[in-house]
Design goal:
It is a single chain. The chain is mainly α. 62% of the residues lie in helices and 0% in strands. It starts with a helix and ends in a 6-residue tail after the last helix.
């Protein structure tokens, strides 16, 4: 299947998955850009939507630290630095942190997880399976995601959602 068609078809199927709601995440992003930071409660909501099992860890972050980190992310250059900074908050490993970056800048970032990695691997962009990610892995995924976005004309966040849905459609057996 041609890449643009794959993204188009997978995006059409995305809302039938259990992935994050892109419209809801866009709303969080609008709030983030307007306020200039996210509160602990807003970060909890993102974490809960992204990974319900680890969301409770967010509550252990001091309120001001959440504002400070999310404020600083807006002024830091470099994808690795941005994801690493967010990953310093409890409850924010790279996949959950990617949701915050995607909310802030969907033209440059994508929500990633094991499904997105598996799709990139299935399409020949990456080698090997992964079950957990760090900041370097996020940057590794972001390169091909941006390449696919550039090649297909879709936004980076849309390619991420499409890759998630593609794995849901193609995977045989369980996720892990």
């Amino acid at each position: 299947m041609e890449l643009r068609s794959l993204v188009e078809q997978s995006l059409a199927e995305y809302e039938q998955t259990q992935g994050l709601d892109p419209d809801w995440l866009d709303g969080i992003g609008a709030t983030y850009r307007e306020q200039g930071y996210l509160t602990r409660e807003q970060l909890y909501d993102v974490a809960y939507a992204s990974s319900t099992r680890s969301a409770y860890h967010v509550e252990s972050n001091p309120t001001e630290r959440c504002r400070e980190v999310t404020r600083n992310v807006r002024h830091v250059d470099g994808d690795f630095s941005k994801i690493q900074l967010l990953s310093g908050l409890s409850g924010f490993k790279a996949p959950t942190a990617s949701a915050v970056l995607t909310a802030l800048d969907p033209e440059r970032h994508a929500v990633v997880d094991t499904r997105v990695w598996a799709s990139l691997e299935r399409l020949g962009y990456l080698e090997g399976r992964k079950e957990s990610f760090d900041a370097a892995d996020y940057v590794t995924m972001l390169g091909p995601i941006r390449d696919v976005a550039s090649e297909t004309g879709y936004a980076v966040d849309e390619v991420g959602y499409a890759l998630f849905a593609y794995d849901v459609a193609e995977r045989e057996g369980t996720l892990h």
